[in-house]
Write the structure tokens for this entry.
Amino acid sequence: QKEVEQNSGPLSVPEGAIASLNCTYSDRVSQSFFWYRQYSGKSPELIMSIYSNGDKEDGRFTAQLNKASQYVSLLIRDSQPSDSATYLCAVNRVRNQGGKLIFGQGTELSVKP
Amino acid sequence: GAVVSQHPSRVICKSGTSVKIECRSLDFQATTMFWYRQFPKKSLMLMATSNEGSKATYEQGVEKDKFLINHASLTLSTLTVTSAHPEDSSFYICSAPGREDRNEQFFGPGTRLTVL
């Protein structure tokens, strides 16, 4: 079982729709969770970090964490073609500097105009 | 967040040569930085943790004699790919912790290495 699993996609949604990206992790003691966006040929860009159960909203993005189910998701409201990218879920066992991030394989999102 | 730079952004070299990649944390002093490698259509793989003032910590399967890491100062870490071979061709990315939230990591723009 992979430590961090994502559906590889591609996930295709129409412009204006809600895109839902999912991630599960295997290490129950994981403490920190992150979503990164990566455009083709570029390095990852941090979108959201979440540490506690529940929802965290930032603009059109909402991260949801459920530690009991070992599940973290990212919702993108009012999806735009510019949101088309690969979204990487990352997990850290600790909550301090120096902790290692474990990445999922990424989900490719395509937003169709 | 954090501003992280990398140099060079792209390098092409002949097989057998060594290549040095620099990673700088421009607005924050980072005692720890990380080096990743990414192959096409694949996710990021952590290669090593760069520690200021001490030896780097390498992930299992990463040859420390081939991938030399030096954390020269609180703002600079370097990765040297020694005796590069075509299979070392990849996208190398470093990261540094954020200034406000040191648990977050911010990535440099990456270095694309092509070994002929």
